[in-house]
């Protein structure tokens, strides 16, 4: 018998789980960014919702479209109906990435199905009408002016604080937007309609432009198809060339419409089905499981192989002060879970940018660009930014890259792409370090990301954030040079710097200090002083003193008095969950995720601070992974594994299949009645491996036969030199993809965000 679990949300929006596959359902109209149905194909996307005066609308989003350095809003399509809306229902299918619904009016019904078509520059909405209903489509356009200028223009006219200006399509803002256009005088747009296709050209500076082509086409008796595509060029085109370019894209749209909605849907659904088959996770808390799986959906909606890295919004635009890739925690958290979720092509888009456009990071190093690289706190994928503070940021991005290469090993790329860029990243920090009279190397005066007291950001030497990322970078450079015998004459410099590097500053009450003479004294949403524990895993938790220090630091940090809504944020809770999982304290990890969902959960899992910040919900997926298994390698040589050491005591049954771990392993495991009942581990390279178990077991090896665990310091350990292709198994191998039963728990989502 099939088991069905329902997870109720406010506004009659819910998740439904059937056969372990979640869908979102709405029984009332979504009315904001954190409520709408989200579709995306890795570059373009739409969010489906409505303002009070609308029947329905479809936002237009494209991650490529920038002015000089900032993402641009485009606008939306508004559905015009003959009747007045009386009822509404909608479903968003996770595994097919299709939204479908019914609008009931006093004239009839409008059925719709919508896609951002996978693998194509195409968005489709199919309408079928009943009764006396009739429809039309209106394009609400926004000018080619970046969001910061639009927000400030609205603020100047209306007096509203910028963080309250969330929807540029609000009719109350029309006058302010018109005045902003008058102020900045963007180049005149070009619009035509030809053979039923509407075309809009938005010229930008230096010959750049974006284009929108769309049509509402009758496809059958009382059936219509809305189709659109957006395009972007950074070529320096003159006016005539821009018009010819737009016309060529109009032809592409017409060619796409030679296939029916159903034909596009069949290919689209096949891609999504294959995507979700690459890994599997099932936990007893079905609300958290739903949340986890929707993060995988969002990432694949926001980026694909060959596409841009995910910024703070993905392909769903909302008014924001942060219209690009943010990088003092943000993009780093976004990219942490996907390599483990066995999605290497999607997980790679950030690192492919570093490989393919190294000049973005080299130019940002300014006077040190001959041997250095860095990035600003915010990154444009097209234009180098200028560095200002937070020396550890680029090294954190490179740590993500290293994590990816450990999960999906690639020796050639490690040597020829990653190693030179890591040296450049370390060099930039070293150029700014100071060696004192005792030969101790100090990182430069800097803030620790997000830490302030009374809105003052202390700027001091030796912030733990900078020290720990530099320590990791230097250690990793030395390891790679040795592992591949690169004979790098510069290695002496890095060994010397590591030996001289100042120690992390400690303190009895808080454990780990923010930086020189700066103790953590007030609630700190960012865990910048804890990066030596997570994510860099440089603390030896088998050492009782190191474990005690980590315990003290995490407990103190996450339990300080909450002064205001900025004391802690969603990523504080997901970070704490991951740290408690590392400490083997699953109940505490789970409690942090429950606080996260209760405080920050929304109908569609999108997340807002004063603007969209996509990384926080996605980081919850990484926290789930950290709870399911732990893998670390302090010495770079031996991989240390534990299964289910971070799950809460209430999760007696848990299962996962085909996740990936550092060391290049494919992992499947199942826990039943509170104990490990089965696992499968496949090695992709020769490694030294230690697996820790709760009790003695007998493991089968495809190369060595039966292997028995040995006792070591009161633990049961399997230790071996595993070979490429070797498979270790234990228990019943047929249950990894069998969902575990569970309940919704006691957590309620709500919409009480800023």
TrEMBL record:
<dbReference type="InterPro" id="IPR012341">
    <property type="entry name" value="6hp_glycosidase-like_sf"/>
</dbReference>
<dbReference type="InterPro" id="IPR008928">
    <property type="entry name" value="6-hairpin_glycosidase_sf"/>
</dbReference>
<dbReference type="InterPro" id="IPR054363">
    <property type="entry name" value="GH95_cat"/>
</dbReference>
<feature type="domain" description="Glycosyl hydrolase family 95 catalytic">
    <location>
        <begin position="284"/>
        <end position="628"/>
    </location>
</feature>
<dbReference type="Pfam" id="PF22124">
    <property type="entry name" value="Glyco_hydro_95_cat"/>
</dbReference>
<keyword id="KW-0732">Signal</keyword>
<feature type="signal peptide">
    <location>
        <begin position="1"/>
        <end position="18"/>
    </location>
</feature>
<protein>
    <recommendedName>
        <fullName>Glycosyl hydrolase family 95 catalytic domain-containing protein</fullName>
    </recommendedName>
</protein>
């Amino acid at each position: 018998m099939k088991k069905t679990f329902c997870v109720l949300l406010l506004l009659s929006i819910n998740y439904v789980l059937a056969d372990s596959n979640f869908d979102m359902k709405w029984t009332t109209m979504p009315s904001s960014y954190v409520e709408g149905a989200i579709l995306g194909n890795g570059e373009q996307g739409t969010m489906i919702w409505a303002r009070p005066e609308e029947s329905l609308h479809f936002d237009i989003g494209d991650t490529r479209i920038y002015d000089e350095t900032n993402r641009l809003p485009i606008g939306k399509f508004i559905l015009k109906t003959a009747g007045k809306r009386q009822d509404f229902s909608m479903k968003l299918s996770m595994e097919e990435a299709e939204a479908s619904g019914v609008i009931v009016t006093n004239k009839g019904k409008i059925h719709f199905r919508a896609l951002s078509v996978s693998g194509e520059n195409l968005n489709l909405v199919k309408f079928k009408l009943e009764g006396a209903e009739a429809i039309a489509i209106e394009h609400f356009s926004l000018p080619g002016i970046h969001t910061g200028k639009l927000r400030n223009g609205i603020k100047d006219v209306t007096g509203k604080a910028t963080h309250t200006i969330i929807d540029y399509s609000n009719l109350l803002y029309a006058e302010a937007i018109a005045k902003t256009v008058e102020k900045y005088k963007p180049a005149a747009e070009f619009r035509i309609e030809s053979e039923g296709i509407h075309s809009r050209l938005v010229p930008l500076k230096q010959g750049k432009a974006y284009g929108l082509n769309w049509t509402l086409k009758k496809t059958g008796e009382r059936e219509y198809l809305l189709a659109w595509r957006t395009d972007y060029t950074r070529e320096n085109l003159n006016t005539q060339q821009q018009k010819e370019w737009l016309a060529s894209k109009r032809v592409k749209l017409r060619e796409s419409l030679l296939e029916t909605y159903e034909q596009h849907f069949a290919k689209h659904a096949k891609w999504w089905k294959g995507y979700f088959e690459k890994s599997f996770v099932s936990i007893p808390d079905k609300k958290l499981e739903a949340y986890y799986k929707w993060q995988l959906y969002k990432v694949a909606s926001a980026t694909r192989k060959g596409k841009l890295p995910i910024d703070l919004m993905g392909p769903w635009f909302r008014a924001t002060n942060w219209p690009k890739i943010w990088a003092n925690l943000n993009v780093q958290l976004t990219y942490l879970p996907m390599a483990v979720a066995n999605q290497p092509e999607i997980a790679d888009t950030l690192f492919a940018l570093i490989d393919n456009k190294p000049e973005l990071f080299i130019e940002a190093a300014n006077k040190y660009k001959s041997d250095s690289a860095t990035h600003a706190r915010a990154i444009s994928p097209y234009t180098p930014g200028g560095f200002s503070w937070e020396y550890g940021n680029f090294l954190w991005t490179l740590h993500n890259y290293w994590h990816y290469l450990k999960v999906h090993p690639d020796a050639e790329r490690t040597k020829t792409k990653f190693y030179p860029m890591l040296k450049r990243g370390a060099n930039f920090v070293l150029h700014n370090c100071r060696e004192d009279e005792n030969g101790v190397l100090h990182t430069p005066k800097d803030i620790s990301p997000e830490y302030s007291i009374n809105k003052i950001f202390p700027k001091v030497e030796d912030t733990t954030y900078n020290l720990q990322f530099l320590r990791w970078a230097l250690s990793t450079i030395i390891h790679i040079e040795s592992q591949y015998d690169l004979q790098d004459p510069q290695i002496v410099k890095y060994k010397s710097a590591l030996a001289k590097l100042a120690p992390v500053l400690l303190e009895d009450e808080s454990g780990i200090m923010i930086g020189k003479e700066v103790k953590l004294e007030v609630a700190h949403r960012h865990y910048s002083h804890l990066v030596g524990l997570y994510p860099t895993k440089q603390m030896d938790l088998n050492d009782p003193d190191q474990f005690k220090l980590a315990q003290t630091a995490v407990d103190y940090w996450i339990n300080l008095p909450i002064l205001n809504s900025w004391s802690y944020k969603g990523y504080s809770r997901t970070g704490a969950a991951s740290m408690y999982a590392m400490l083997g304290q699953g109940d505490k990890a789970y409690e942090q995720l429950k606080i996260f969902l209760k405080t920050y959960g929304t109908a569609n899992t999108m997340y807002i601070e004063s603007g969209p910040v996509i990384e926080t919900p996605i980081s919850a997926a990484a926290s789930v992974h950290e709870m399911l298994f732990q893998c670390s390698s302090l010495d770079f040589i031996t991989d240390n594994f534990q299964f289910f050491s971070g799950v809460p005591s209430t999760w007696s049954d848990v299962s996962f299949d085909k996740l990936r771990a550092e060391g290049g392993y494919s992992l499947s495991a199942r826990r039943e009645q509170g104990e490990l009942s089965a696992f499968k581990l496949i090695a992709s390279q020769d490694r030294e491996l230690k697996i820790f178990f709760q009790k003695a077991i007998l493991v089968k090896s495809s190369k060595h036969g039966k292997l028995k665990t040995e006792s070591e310091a009161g633990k049961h350990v399997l230790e071996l030199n595993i070979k490429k292709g070797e498979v270790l198994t234990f228990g019943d191998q047929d249950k990894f993809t069998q969902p575990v039963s569970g309940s919704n728990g006691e957590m309620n989502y709500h919409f009480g965000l800023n």
